[in-house]
Structure formats: structure tokens, C-alpha cells
Amino acid sequence: MSAAGRPGSRRAAHRERAEARLRRTADVPAASRGVPVPAPRSAPPGPVLVRWTLPPVLAAVPEVRHRLRDLLRGWRVDDELTDTLLLAATELVSNSVRHAAVLTEQVRVTCAIAHGRIRLDVSDDHPFRPRALMDTGMDAEDGRGLFIVKLTIAEAHGVIDVLASETGKTIRIRVPLPL
Fold first, then answer.
1. Is residue 40 very low, low, confident or very high in pLDDT (cuts 50, 70, 90)?
2. DSSP characters for the chain?
3. What is the pTM of this model?
4. 153, 142 in Cβ contact below 8 A?
């Protein structure tokens, strides 16, 4: 049996609590449950800035995806933008693990929501800017993942910046929330 299904594991306990909440609220309208009307997108429930630090190992990639998906759902971000940000986070964290692990003790991921925009930062300790964000095209031998990220972020009317830091770099994505 996997750790996810093992009685007493954190994941199993979390799944049981979530399923119990769903069973309790599945067929009852929110208003009759005494649930307040959701706040506007400019004021999401819960934290408006979240930071995670993870070791530069392959297991960090799905971990970031799961955490980010849960966070975006909590912020009530629509599915299309959520998919775009999950793709971007997966590619950026994968690249940090693949290309920067030798120089990086921790991959740092920050997600923030404010003023109708979402910001996603992925930081590592490798100083070099990824060429793929600057000059990669469809015919490139390498960097196709970042090229796809660049295209999907542009389709979402967002921007990607590479920021130098004392220890390395941060790739910052900013996208507006759909109206």
C-alpha cells in the first residue's frame, strides 16, 4: 500500500477531511449553509503571498504543482489561468532542478495575488539567464519548454522577467486575473 493510502498518514487524513467536507456540503446551497458570499477577486480568502523553499530534486516539481494548484483554487483562479501557471511553475522548477542544482541549496517559489494580478517567482542560485526566454524559437534544439511557457504567458496577457539577485536569479511571471 502506498504512503498516500496508509491509515494515519498526513495525505490520507487530509483526503478524509476533504471528502467529509464535500459530503457535508455537496447538495446544500451556500446561502443556506450560512456561508458568506465569496469576496471579490481583489481580496482572495487566505494568504495573499506564499513562499515555499524546496531542495533542488525532482520530487520538488510535483510538490510545487500540488501546492500551487491548491493555492490557486483557494484564490478562485479560473481553470485556464491555473493551468497556465501550473505549466509555468512546472517548467521553471524543473529547469532549476536540472540546470541549477549544483549551485543551489534551495529552489524558492513565491506566489502572490494583488491588484488584479498574480505574480509567480521561481528563484535559484545559478547566475545565468536562460537563453530560451530571450531568443528561442520553434526550431530550437533546446529550450522548447521555456518557449512554450513564454507563449502561454503572452496568451494570458502576462509578462516574464529575469531578475538578477545576489545569489543567482529569479524568473518572475505576472499575469492579470480574468475579469
1. very low
2. --TTTSTT-HHHHHHHHHHHHHHHHTTS-TGGGTPPPPPPTTS-SS-SEEEEEE-SSTTHHHHHHHHHHHHHHHTT--HHHHHHHHHHHHHHHHHHHHHHTTT-S-EEEEEEEETTEEEEEEEES--PPPTHHHH--TT-SS-HHHHHHHHHHHHTT-EEEEEE-SSSEEEEEEEEPP-
3. 0.70
4. no
Cα–Cα–Cα angle for 170, 46, 124, nearest 5°? 15
What region does 47 belong to: left with phi over 0, alpha with psi -120 to 50, or beta? beta
Q: Model confidence at 104, in pLDDT bands (50, 70, 90)? A: confident
Cell of 46: 487566505
Residue 166 has pLDDT above 80, yes or no: yes
